[in-house]
Design goal:
single chain, alpha/beta, Rossmann fold, Hypothetical protein af1432, five-stranded parallel sheet, three-stranded antiparallel sheet, 16 helices
Length: 398
């Protein structure tokens, strides 16, 4: 079996015994004490341990504390407790705080231990398989919903795309675990805007005053998105993040070992939204950051600080005029695309997807939009264009 197993005990002789007993059947590593165990787990994050077996009675960090930490830093790892003093309180603490898969007592016969390890590996593989299936299912659902949003309300989709980029930066900067949840929440944060007409959402992004009825519909859009997403299995936490994106307040423990993932996600969305609102109002990055830092009673400071070095525009992109017939997936629109009578089809900043490409070409073939559009294209892609295509992109000739 290739999945790795970690044994943790404060007695090296005991660990040597486990290695001799099990090395032929399992991929086994050992650590003396909880601190060394956590260092090994941190070092192996790209390929986590499938199972961790820990002694309960260890000096310094005991087994309950150690397995509780393992649960936080490597939640998919199956945890097994092993002790020579099986009192009820230790067992209860271990199960409650460490979410233990098995509780074994010393001395533990090889057959019993091997069976427990094999069951732990099976459980780990089931968890990973379900996680992969779930992420693929969610990814597919999110893709469909974002495509629908891009077609129904392109301005709202444009904001969602921008917010997603800000959130990705925050996640990377703060090394947040399972960052995909926050990124999905960002992409879905404007889904409720499907209930708003294009004029209303454009007025919002332009900073124009809304009527009371329009404002009420706008205020309801996070709840609408949350209601829609709550129908998708396992999307409930993301739905709650979105529902709270404009109401959650800073917390003294917003980022740390014991943070509330829903509140953190909602606060991340709130910071990303505030930043986008500042840029949409015409402020540059520095002015936007200055305004946000003045709202410490509303925005989590550590999340605002994480945006300090974000690039407002991606590097290595060249702006070119491109014929609609030459548009390709991955290009980024540098201007709003409107019909001849002014109806917004696609908002500036949106990346061209296959569905959007088909839609634009359909409008172009009906001569409802112009024949060229300004786009941003990575320089590497420009060099790979065919000569005639590159020339048309550079000159904007139809």
């Amino acid at each position: 079996m290739s999945d790795k197993i970690l044994f943790v005990d404060d007695e090296p002789a005991v660990l040597d015994g486990f290695r001799r007993l099990l090395h032929k059947d399992f991929s086994l590593l050992t650590a003396v004490g909880g601190e060394e165990g956590l260092k090994l787990i941190s070092a192996e994050k790209t390929e986590p341990f499938a199972v961790v077996v820990s002694d309960m009675r260890m000096p310094g960090m005991d087994g309950v504390q150690f397995l509780s930490r393992v649960r936080l830093v490597s939640p998919d790892t199956v945890r097994i407790a092993l002790t020579g003093q099986a009192d009820m309180q230790t067992a209860a603490d271990c199960v409650n705080e460490g979410s233990i898969f098995r509780f074994l007592t010393k001395p533990c016969q090889k057959e019993v231990l091997a069976k427990a390890l094999t069951s732990g590996l099976v459980q780990y593989r089931l968890v990973i398989a379900e996680k992969e299936l779930l992420e693929k299912t969610l990814s597919g659902s999110v893709k469909v919903l974002t495509e629908v949003l891009s077609l129904v309300n392109p301005a709202a989709f444009g904001r969602a795309v921008r917010m997603s980029r800000y959130v990705q930066h925050i996640v990377r900067k703060l090394h947040l675990e399972a960052g995909w949840r926050f990124e999905v929440a960002a992409m879905m944060s404007q889904l409720g805007c499907v209930t708003l007409d294009t004029d209303t959402i454009e007025a919002v992004y332009a900073g124009r005053k809304l009527s009371p009825d329009e404002q009420a519909r706008l205020d309801a859009h996070p709840s609408v998105a949350a209601d829609l997403l709550s129908n998708i299995p396992r999307m409930e936490p993301i739905a709650r993040m979105i529902a709270q994106q404009e109401s959650v307040l800073p917390s003294p423990h917003a980022v740390g070992e014991h943070f509330d993932v829903v509140k953190l996600g909602a606060q991340i969305l709130k910071v990303a939204l505030a930043y986008d609102q500042q840029l949409s109002a015409g402020k540059n990055h520095s002015a936007a950051m200055q305004q946000m830092l003045m709202r410490t009673n509303q925005l989590e400071r550590s999340l605002v600080d994480a945006l300090a070095d974000i690039e407002v525009e991606p590097l290595h992109l060249e702006v070119k005029s491109c014929r609609v017939s030459d548009l390709d997936c991955g290009m980024i629109l540098q201007e709003d695309v409107r019909t001849n009578n002014g109806l917004l089809i696609v908002a500036k900043g949106q990346q061209v997807t296959y569905a959007l490409l088909v839609r634009l070409r359909n409008f172009w073939e009906r001569r409802s939009i112009g024949s060229t559009v300004m786009v941003r294209v990575p320089q590497a892609e420009l060099s790979e264009l065919k000569p005639e295509k590159a020339n048309s992109a550079a000159t904007g000739q139809s």
